[in-house]
């Protein structure tokens, strides 16, 4: 397939490009578009054949459900069977934005979207290009992250080209994304409500609205996480990721290099403070926020540099740090 590539100015997007992309969606094709979290690989959520193409293009396991994206609260009723008062409260506080909500699915939505589950996740992105594209399409857009399954989510169009060039109809380039991490997925159908995936909105922020929300990401049901996507190895660069505590960091890195007969050029470090007396490449971010924005990009860059091992200083599990830590733990698993 010949993939069209189109750059847009996100503050003033070229409408003819977005109309063309919306036509592709309406005709059952695949459109990669920017959102405020990561790039999405979109298709008509109400067209089974179109959604099937998503699974093929990104080699996604068929038991992993997909988020439906809307650009207007009114569109919810085409996807979900019930909107509870708690749904409404979350929507009022977090939409549009990087929070995805779980609902009971309407029977008319093709089962492939939710991988056969009775529930469906819905997200109302705040990104102007994503919103305009959904609006012009006039239908909800099913969209996972626009990476090949298992690879880090794409935070710029170059990442998408690496993974999906020739596998999709069009890639809309809106520059680097704002958050650099995926949305937070919240299940309020359960009591107590729980987070299915930590993401761009922290649990602390959600607690202000839903005081009894818990982190459900480590809960197991028949030995499997409650959200299907969490069971796969994810976010992974080709290099081995090694998570280390701050204590004795330099010593532990030097020991590892020695024991594994690794050349200094084959290793890289991701941390919040530069380490003296360590001569491997260092990627230092000024705070956890900066690290979260650039983490996936750093993983991909290190793959291009043929790094064999990436040491990461373990971030504290609070605020956005929790989402970063979850991804690092998956990447190092
Ligand atoms: O920020 C984001 O959420 C991005 C952008 C493109 O919107 N999308 C994204 O989609 O990250 P994806 O498919 O890469 O991740 C969706 C996650 C998966 O872990 C999936 O298993 C979970 O949400 N999920 C989707 N529908 C679900 C459902 N009905 N029940 C439980 N988990 C669900
Ligand atoms: Mg994904």
UniProtKB/TrEMBL annotation:
<dbReference type="InterPro" id="IPR050156">
    <property type="entry name" value="TC-AMP_synthase_SUA5"/>
</dbReference>
<feature type="binding site">
    <location>
        <position position="145"/>
    </location>
    <ligand>
        <name>ATP</name>
    </ligand>
</feature>
<dbReference type="GO" id="GO:0005737">
    <property type="term" value="C:cytoplasm"/>
</dbReference>
<dbReference type="GO" id="GO:0000049">
    <property type="term" value="F:tRNA binding"/>
</dbReference>
<keyword id="KW-0808">Transferase</keyword>
<feature type="domain" description="YrdC-like">
    <location>
        <begin position="15"/>
        <end position="201"/>
    </location>
</feature>
<feature type="binding site">
    <location>
        <position position="235"/>
    </location>
    <ligand>
        <name>ATP</name>
    </ligand>
</feature>
<keyword id="KW-0548">Nucleotidyltransferase</keyword>
<dbReference type="GO" id="GO:0006450">
    <property type="term" value="P:regulation of translational fidelity"/>
</dbReference>
<dbReference type="InterPro" id="IPR005145">
    <property type="entry name" value="Sua5_C"/>
</dbReference>
<dbReference type="GO" id="GO:0003725">
    <property type="term" value="F:double-stranded RNA binding"/>
</dbReference>
<dbReference type="InterPro" id="IPR017945">
    <property type="entry name" value="DHBP_synth_RibB-like_a/b_dom"/>
</dbReference>
<feature type="binding site">
    <location>
        <position position="123"/>
    </location>
    <ligand>
        <name>L-threonine</name>
    </ligand>
</feature>
<dbReference type="GO" id="GO:0061710">
    <property type="term" value="F:L-threonylcarbamoyladenylate synthase"/>
</dbReference>
<keyword id="KW-0547">Nucleotide-binding</keyword>
<feature type="binding site">
    <location>
        <position position="37"/>
    </location>
    <ligand>
        <name>L-threonine</name>
    </ligand>
</feature>
<dbReference type="InterPro" id="IPR006070">
    <property type="entry name" value="Sua5-like_dom"/>
</dbReference>
<dbReference type="GO" id="GO:0008033">
    <property type="term" value="P:tRNA processing"/>
</dbReference>
<feature type="binding site">
    <location>
        <position position="153"/>
    </location>
    <ligand>
        <name>ATP</name>
    </ligand>
</feature>
<dbReference type="Pfam" id="PF03481">
    <property type="entry name" value="Sua5_C"/>
</dbReference>
<feature type="binding site">
    <location>
        <position position="143"/>
    </location>
    <ligand>
        <name>L-threonine</name>
    </ligand>
</feature>
<dbReference type="Pfam" id="PF01300">
    <property type="entry name" value="Sua5_yciO_yrdC"/>
</dbReference>
<feature type="binding site">
    <location>
        <position position="197"/>
    </location>
    <ligand>
        <name>ATP</name>
    </ligand>
</feature>
<feature type="binding site">
    <location>
        <position position="119"/>
    </location>
    <ligand>
        <name>ATP</name>
    </ligand>
</feature>
<keyword id="KW-0067">ATP-binding</keyword>
<feature type="binding site">
    <location>
        <position position="64"/>
    </location>
    <ligand>
        <name>ATP</name>
    </ligand>
</feature>
<comment type="similarity">
    <text>Belongs to the SUA5 family.</text>
</comment>
<keyword id="KW-0819">tRNA processing</keyword>
<dbReference type="GO" id="GO:0005524">
    <property type="term" value="F:ATP binding"/>
</dbReference>
<dbReference type="InterPro" id="IPR038385">
    <property type="entry name" value="Sua5/YwlC_C"/>
</dbReference>
<feature type="binding site">
    <location>
        <position position="183"/>
    </location>
    <ligand>
        <name>L-threonine</name>
    </ligand>
</feature>
<feature type="binding site">
    <location>
        <position position="60"/>
    </location>
    <ligand>
        <name>ATP</name>
    </ligand>
</feature>
<comment type="function">
    <text>Required for the formation of a threonylcarbamoyl group on adenosine at position 37 (t(6)A37) in tRNAs that read codons beginning with adenine.</text>
</comment>
<keyword id="KW-0963">Cytoplasm</keyword>
<feature type="binding site">
    <location>
        <position position="69"/>
    </location>
    <ligand>
        <name>L-threonine</name>
    </ligand>
</feature>
<protein>
    <recommendedName>
        <fullName>Threonylcarbamoyl-AMP synthase</fullName>
        <ecNumber>2.7.7.87</ecNumber>
    </recommendedName>
</protein>
<dbReference type="InterPro" id="IPR010923">
    <property type="entry name" value="T(6)A37_SUA5"/>
</dbReference>
